[in-house]
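Action item from last week, closing it out:
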Amino acid sequence: FKSAVAAGCTGVNHCNFVLYEDYPPAKSWSPGAVFIKYACFDDTLSVHYCNREVVVPEVGADSEGYIRTPGYPHFYVGDECRWRLRVNPEQRVRVTLLDVSLRSIGPFENHCTDHVSVSDLNGDSLLSSCEQVELPLKLTSVTNVVDVLVEAKSKGAYPKRGVLLHYKSIGCVTLPAPSNGYLVYRNEDVAHYMCDVNFVFIDTRQRARLLWCYDDNRWNDTVPLCVGKLNNSYFVLLELYSFFAFTIANSLLFKQNKVFRR
């Protein structure tokens, strides 16, 4: 069913899809509802030129994007298109195939004429196919570099959509430990930092700090300075500010109560 919807509606602003006509097996379905999620992306931000290396930022809006074959979604051209996706050495690359529409194996052919392949820098193949795969298909690399190849030996412009994929850098890059502090432990999900003895983080006044990695590549917090617990002007000023604020508030409250009593 997904393939039938993708064939008529992927890559266009408007489409008509008559369930019983465009997907005949639906005639045997029981009464019910079909929900379709239609996501859009800004084509001006996609990579649509062949033979490019994309250095993907560690975090932020630019840490993900789209790649499409030239001519998508109206046609694709018989040619070889390569893209290399590179992220920080501490990270991995996730490639999500959103649409694959290439020439299938013909009745008198034994192999694919046109195909898409995704491979790791170590040579491992993550995918190689010319058929419509179950979409969306998510592939995550082992190394920090992924090569995407769309090889089309068909002559001229072939009347199928081509390939559309999404990429994103995966994993939080280790934040540097502050002066008078150190990294205790980290894995894919958390990082534990500590300040040296008699030092605390300047914002929490605690020695320990635990960070969580979320949204694939973002830490939930930062690692601020570690400052001395004793004879520190910052904390002295903070204590004085708190004391005077408390004193003034109590004084105003006392005067207000005295007025009400009169």
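Closing note: The longest strand covers residues 92-101.
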